[in-house]
Structures are given as structure tokens and as C-alpha cells.
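User: My collaborator sent over this chain with a note saying "see what the structure looks like." That's all I know about it. Can you take a look?
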Amino acid sequence: MKCLVAILCMLAGPASAASLTFTTESYPPFSFLGPDDVPRGAGVEQVNGIMKGIGSDMSYTIEVLPWARALALAETQPDHCVFATARTAERENRFKWVGPLHVDRNTLVKRAGSPVHAPTLEAAKAYRIGTQRDDYTQDILRRKGFTDIDLSASFDLTLAKLLGGRIDMMPMSDGVVRKLLKEGQPIEPVVALSLQQLSIACNKSVSGTLIERMQASLDRLNANGTRDKIYRAYGLTPVR
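Assistant: Without extra context I'll predict from the sequence alone. Here is the result:
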């Protein structure tokens, strides 16, 4: 079932102001819907901070969608951006970029108590790995030689498959691993998979001037300590 909930974040400005649509996925604590159906998370707050820092001439929305849909909209629809998107060589020329929002370590994780034993990535290739359709980890797994890959529409569905024994392992951000362990989820890290920069990827129709303003606003958030405060609020430690 598609999650099409959006929050309209309007800043005071003229009726003719430019508008952007940001899409993201449910991937707590970076992005998720709060109990009031409002998008929240460390990535969402960074986007809000970026847009607030631009000034009063911008309006924008944030929509939480299945990842493949979120990514496709940003690539095909004018004035759309998607976050947090791994800035890979394959994607580089398909978007205009603002970032990074985060440097993300990914680890293959198994269900606690599972007999899965994979001290290396080579050993891990013998197992069934689940991830989200069109997520950057899908490409990483294929490039690293994994062949038994199970695809789901969302992180939550992949996690449910892992906990239900339908897949053996799944890639997961280190920050998400720590959050789920703190919540008591029965998971165990197995082996490191990758290190990636996660950024905002914008449709190529977005003006270069606006991209520069967004980047300058993000740079200010980083320089003045706002990003670190956001991460601490969500129990995260930025990877530098």
C-alpha cells in the first residue's frame, strides 16, 4: 500500500514563488511518518533547515513514498528532489546534487539466533539477501557479485521478511542498526557492506542557482553545528 502522506511546508512569500517537491522513503530515524502523519527524522529536519535557510521565496512539500516511486519521481518530474540518495557513479549524471546529508556505513544484518555465518562478503554470497527495489544497496549487491537478491517495496517489508525468516540477511545503515537494537529488535550485525555519501538528488530541471543556494544553506547547517544537534536528537552520530 503506497504511503502518499505529505506535509506542505509553506514559507511566507509571493504567490508566484518557486516550489519544490521532496520525496523520501520510510527509513527511521532518517525519515518516517510521525504519529500525526507528518514526515519527521534526521534527514527531514535537514531538508527543512536547508529550505528555511534559503529565505522567504520558496515553498516545498515532503512526501513519504516507497523508495522506487520516490526516486522515479525525482528523475522524471520537474521541480522534484529525492533524499537521502546515494551519490553513485551510475546516478551522477541523472540528477543535480546537494550534499552530503550523511556518510552512511551499511552492514549486512541477520535475525538474532539465525545460523547464518558470513565472516566475509564472499561467504555472504551463499545466502539470500533482501533489500528495497531501486535502493542503492541493490546495485551494490549486484556489483559485488550477489545473485540471490530478494526485492521489496520498502525497508519495513524487508525487515519483516528478515524477522520472519524469508530472507537470510539485509543491508542496513549503522545508525538504523543501533536504533533497532536499542528498541529490542532481534537482529545481529554480520559483515560490513559499503560506505556511501547520501545526498539530495534533484531533477535536472531545477535551476543551478537554486542548487547553489541549497548547497550553501546545507553548508551553513554543517558549519554552525545544526546538523550535529539534529543527529543527537535522533540518537545518531554523524559519520565523518
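A starting point for your reply to your collaborator: The radius of gyration is 18 Å.
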